[in-house]
Amino acid sequence: MSDPVIVGVDGSASSLDAVDVAAREAHLRGAALRIVHAFGHASGHLPTGAPPWSPAGHGLEPMAHGALARAEERAHAVAPGIEITRSVMAGEALEALEIESRSAALVVVGSRGLGSFTGLLLGSTAVQLAAHGHCPLMVVRGRPDPAGAVLLAVDGSEAGEAAVEFAFAEAALRKAPLVAVHVWNTWSERAYEGPGDPLTAVVADLDHLREAEQHVLDEAVASWQEVFPQVAVERRLTRSRIRPALIDASLEGQLVVVGARGRGGFTGLLLGSVSQALLHHAHCPVTVVRGKE
């Protein structure tokens, strides 16, 4: 059996939706599902005077196991045959899930939890885990039960190779088509690779730039099409603003897969602006895949 699928739960409706998705992912992979709940002082639910690291003896542990039992019931309803384990951990949710991610195939979380501030579109745990986790992170958001293709955001970066592999594997597991989307515009750094005045090159060599961007897209998916011949692939080259174009594309997908950082990422920035935009605004679940370090 492969590494388990981990799902973080906190009793919120968002986390229970994540349980449904995580159960399906575990079933597709032939993997076990591990349901994790963490106690930490940031949750704001500890009784007065209770040490944040010790839920026992304060009525919190039974409450947590009740939430886990409800989550397990949901998971069995979605995927009756999967193996399920539970874990109640002391500490922050981010710390607990980061530890779990070290030996997981996938971590699944909801887009908002009980600890989210009012009006916050995405919980801080999800953002931080996307940047610091050790396996792909799936954030469940957007349309309920989304249908359509698996969408892959192609950026042509070396770090993005892991996202390409994951997207092909996910499309194969789901028996879904894959739409590889590469969005470009005249601010692309490839517009400045040629000799001469870069501003002139943007205008005069538009056809050349388009060809270069098509080559980036073709190169990104060609070898993986050979590995996954059963996956039907559409290569989509789009001239537009990157973040809005990918968010719009998510209206027709069942899942968006994106790398943690693209070609334009600043050194030391663990999560790029495109990844963050999708995590906050996509219309379907998003998986962020970090490249090998």
Descriptive overview:
This protein has 293 residues and is of the alpha/beta class. It has 9 helices and 10 strands. The protein has a 10-stranded mixed sheet, sandwiched between helices. Helix 8 packs parallel to helix 9 (273-281). It starts with a strand and ends with a strand.
What's the SSE blueprint?
Layout: E1 5-8, H1 13-29, E2 33-39, H2 60-78, E3 84-90, H3 93-101, E4 106-110, H4 124-132, E5 137-140, E6 149-153, H5 161-174, E7 178-184, H6 198-204, H7 206-227, E8 233-239, H8 242-249, E9 253-259, H9 273-281, E10 286-289
Parallel strand pairs: 1-2, 1-4, 2-3, 4-5, 6-7, 6-9, 7-8, 9-10
Antiparallel strand pairs: 5-10
Helix pairs in contact: 1-2, 3-4, 5-7, 8-9
Distinct helical segment count: 9
Beta-strand share of residues: 15-25%
* Spatial shape: elongated
User: How many whole angstroms does the radius of gyration measure?
Assistant: 20 Å
Q: Determine the N-to-C terminus distance.
A: 26 Å
Question: Largest sheet, if any?
Answer: 10 strands, mixed
Number of strands: 10
Structural class: alpha/beta
Please sum up the structure shown.
The protein is an alpha/beta fold and 293 residues long. Helices cover 39% and strands 19% of the residues. The chain has helices at residues 13-29, 60-78, 93-101, 124-132, 161-174, 198-204, 206-227, 242-249, 273-281, and strands at residues 5-8, 33-39, 84-90, 106-110, 137-140, 149-153, 178-184, 233-239, 253-259, 286-289.
